[in-house]
Amino acid sequence: MKIVERILAFVGLLSLCGLFIYALQDAPTDENFEKKLFNDYNVYALQIPQNLDFAGEPVPIEDPDIYERMDRELLVNTYWQSNGLLMFKRSEKYFPIIEPILAKYGVPDDFKYLAVIESGLTNAVSPAGARGVWQIMSSTGKENGLEINDNVDERYNLEKATEVACKYFLKCKEDLGSWTLAAAAYNAGKYGISSRLEDQGVKSYYDLLLGEETGRYVFRILAVKEILSHPVKYGFNFREKDLYKRIPTYKVPVDSAVTDFTAFAEHFKINYKILKIHNPWLREAHLNNASRKLYEIQIPEPGYYQ
């Protein structure tokens, strides 16, 4: 009899524990957000959307080759979860800077996804020497008015670099005839795309036989666009407070040399590291400025750093 009572008591305890766990799972609290981390990993074949487009230009997903290439990039970017979450976090911080500049130049908003696949929205350096979020080569930057030397490299100035990218997109669209080809030209060069179109006798990116990198390029853009636009659909779970935020800044005009940026930063009650985080285009601990050029240095609003 005692054995039966013990069994019943044990079953009752298990039932109470089950109800407690169930209640916790349903509670919409921050503490229970982590419930998804336990036994919630599954891998699924993805359903490819039928109405994909880049900058309003449709993707011929009914073509078996296009379908498979799109499927590959969606799978790779969906199941590279750590990179995916970083895309969401960083885009919240940097898209608000990029989007109005694209709009100002009349470049479709979809081009912001190029910055994601080019650099992961970081100030990356490529083996070929391209730098910054938009991965601009030195020659291209100088041709478009950026100052690039050991002291100052404006490829790291996101606002100015985005303007250079916009000018390139517009020129490629004018010469190649479509936004999709303009996007591909950002990877392969305008001449590279135009010569392949001529050699192969076609007019569309989707009809071109290209090398591995450029052949995947637009599909990677499309995959990032699709995933960032529909996070829940692709299994990404986060709260608004999990995303990175842009720290408000104000601009300080400087038209003379700065001999010591450590002292300069202290004047604004920040340290050298914080100054360089907000002004990565300043490449040294001083500013030469023999020509007395007017620069604008970003200083974070008070209260964001202790």
TrEMBL record:
Residues 104-200 form the Transglycosylase SLT domain. Gene3D superfamilies: 1.10.530.10. Belongs to the transglycosylase Slt family. This is Lytic transglycosylase domain-containing protein.
